[in-house]
Specification:
heterodimer, A: alpha+beta, 2 domains, three-stranded mixed beta sheet, two-stranded antiparallel ribbon, 7 helices, elongated, B: 15 helices
Chain lengths: 250, 390
């Protein structure tokens, strides 16, 4: 996974110009009005927290809960890094919205044929060698992109070089690790960041699903055994009754 | 006579008509105006009443069919045979409401078949959808003789019934396994919400919890339905049978209750039991309705012997079960989602209409098919000395 793509957001550098928001809206053809929260027409937003600007977007987990939840496999972790969505498969069950630990996916509630909307890290642009639109638009390099390993190294270098940084890279181990990282000079919980479990969330359901075959094998054997006993009992009872009536007749 | 063709206006017919009128408007709202117009669902609360009530309660309360079928055919508890068809019919209609409910709930309902060819084996919902599809088919097959035996053509009828007889045990066995799997996997759906589902409900054993509570609740609903049949459809059932079933429900609920508390102690969540908050109040409501009150009532002689009291007790159990499922799907996620979800009236109306349709179908099935033995016009409960025969 050394060459998977990632994004690093340095909150200390963001000036809140919202160029990333606008660039995102532009390449998706969304109306350009600024929105306060993520929505089907705002796949990334800048949230103001005190004097800080916090960018919100899909975290592109290494082992995404949404992709494991999606029953038709519409959501996938691509080999290149982004978590992508294939609308032609989606049936609209919205389990991905329930499953996402960062509450990122949005649903087009107002539409008659609604789809899930979320950032795909400009997957197609990246395949062509271009930068994600938001990163390209950032005038101060608060958002940078590159390979996951390089960005982790860079983030590490920054937080250890300057004592103003919180000594944690948000995304390095959250939900088992993500492909979007944040570094900050204010504790993350004060900026509205959630604290999801440190393990990859699909592991939680994998163990339950793993019990399925056991249930079938053990349960099937047990029930067949019980049925055999039931049958056998009925046969014995029948034979005994016959014997009895034969004796009575003789 | 013309007057004979016009349905009489009675109280219940009026109620059903009002419910269906609400249902038709909800159908219009959902399919012509969209999810936003028909529901109060939002991104932080993507699953609401239709999943909590329609799916979780619908599937759970339909557990009676597989429990009774397995008891009769696999465990050889032949004395429950008289209520077998009723139990299977309730389950079948229950799963039908779940499938219809899915059409309301899915954003793109005409793609409901997608899981058949688009697989994701890592998804709990994928397993649930397959189990529900297969088990609904199994239930349809299990119930089919009740319809087929009414066919006027002797040859195909006998052919079908013979074929059905030869596969029946296999059907029951598969049905039991499928039920056991998806009843638990419905709880498994919420395993992935770790850290967001309230500690009073989140446990790695959510699957077991769901399985253990579904069986007694399904049996309780079966008792309720049979009581109503005896009361107003003039059929014949031995009261002792219902009483026997209720004596199985008690221990099952006790096991669930003990398991629930041991789990809470194990997870160090005891502190949440005494907090002053809505979640805790609803938790205690669930425990009271599903464990404390039934265990107390089911041990009373009066309840064991009086069908009406037994009916009331079973109603409490069903309500407790519904509280539990709605707690998991709505209450327990409320705090982390940060919004307060109250279903829109059209959500209630759609669910109510679907359930009512199933009740109406059940009513006509009992009346016109051989589901329960019909009574001679006067007697209601047969004397305790004469055992019922199917």
């Amino acid at each position: 996974m050394a060459s998977t793509k990632a994004i690093l957001v340095d909150i200390t550098k963001c000036i809140g110009c919202r160029s990333c928001e606008q660039a995102c809206k532009q390449i998706h053809g969304f109306p350009s009005d600024t929105e306060a929260k993520l929505s089907p027409t705002a796949l990334t937003v800048i949230e103001e927290r005190g004097d800080k600007f916090v960018r919100r977007m899909c975290m592109h987990c290494q082992d995404p809960a949404c992709a494991s939840a999606c029953l038709v496999g519409a959501l996938k972790k691509s080999a290149a890094g982004p978590v992508t969505y294939d609308g032609s498969k989606c049936i609209g069950c919205r389990y991905c919205l329930v499953a996402c630990p960062f509450s990122v996916p949005r649903y087009e509630w107002a539409k008659l044929v609604p789809y899930v909307k979320k950032c795909d890290m400009c997957s197609e642009r990246q395949l062509k060698g271009q930068l994600p639109a938001c990163v390209e638009a950032c005038p101060v390099q608060a958002s940078t992109s590159g390979t996951r390993d390089d960005l982790l190294e860079e983030a590490q270098r920054r937080i250890f070089a300057d004592s103003k940084y919180v000594r944690h890279i948000y995304g390095s181990d959250e939900a088992g690790g993500t492909s979007v990282f944040f570094i900050s000079d204010v504790p993350f919980e004060k900026l509205g960041f959630v604290t999801p479990p440190k393990q990859a969330l699909p592991l939680l359901t994998a163990s339950a699903l793993g019990d399925g075959p056991t249930v079938i094998l053990v349960g099937g054997a047990l029930l067949s055994g019980l049925y055999w006993i039931t049958q056998r009992r009925a046969l014995v009872a029948l034979a005994e009754a016959r014997e009895k009536s034969a004796k009575e007749r003789s | 006579m013309i007057t004979g063709r016009i349905p009489r206006i009675s109280f219940w017919r009026t109620v059903v008509a009002i419910i269906f009128a609400g249902g038709i408007y909800s159908m219009y709202a959902r399919f012509a105006l969209g999810l936003k117009a028909a529901t109060h669902l939002t991104d932080p609360q993507p699953w609401g009443l239709w999943v909590g009530l329609g799916t979780l309660c619908g599937v759970g309360l339909s557990a009676g069919g597989f429990a009774i079928a397995a008891s009769v055919y696999l465990l050889g508890l032949d004395r429950y045979r008289p209520i077998l068809r009723t139990a299977v019919l309730i389950s079948f209609l229950g799963y039908c409401t779940v499938c219809v409910g899915m059409l309301y709930e899915l954003g793109i309902p005409w793609r409901i078949w997608h899981p058949i060819i688009m697989w994701n084996r890592h998804s709990v919902l994928f397993e649930v959808s397959w189990c529900v599809m297969l088990y609904t088919t199994v239930l349809a097959l299990e119930f089919s003789p009740a319809l087929i035996e009414k066919l006027p053509w002797a040859k195909p009828r006998e052919l079908y019934l013979r074929w059905h007889h030869s596969i029946l045990i296999a059907l029951v066995l598969i049905g039991t396994l499928l039920s056991s799997m998806h009843q638990s996997f419905l709880g498994g759906l919420y395993l992935i919400t770790k850290g967001r589902l309230d500690p009073l409900w989140y446990t790695p054993y959510l699957t077991t919890m769901f399985y253990l509570s579904a069986i007694p609740a399904g049996l309780a609903l079966t008792i309720m339905a049979i009581y109503l049949c005896v009361r107003s459809l003039n059929v014949r059932v031995d009261m002792r049978l219902l009483s026997d079933v209720s004596q199985v429900i008690g221990p099952l609920l006790a096991i669930w209750g003990v398991f629930r508390f041991v789990d809470i102690i194990n997870r160090d969540a005891l502190a949440y039991l005494w907090m002053w908050r809505e979640e805790t109040a609803l938790f205690w409501l669930e425990i009271f309705l599903l464990v404390i009150a039934p265990l107390f009532l089911l041990n009373m002689r009066k309840v064991k012997q009086n069908p009406q009291y037994l009916y009331g007790t079973c109603a409490l159990i069903v309500m407790g079960f519904m509280t539990n499922r709605l707690n998991v799907s709505i209450t327990a996620l409320q705090a982390s989602s940060g919004i307060y979800y109250v279903p829109k009236w059209t959500e209630f109306a759609a669910s109510l209409a679907t359930i009512t349709a199933a009740v109406v179908a059940f009513h006509y099935a009992v009346r016109y098919l051989d589901i329960l033995p019909k009574n001679s016009p006067t007697k209601k409960w047969i004397a305790a000395s004469a055992p019922a025969r199917a």
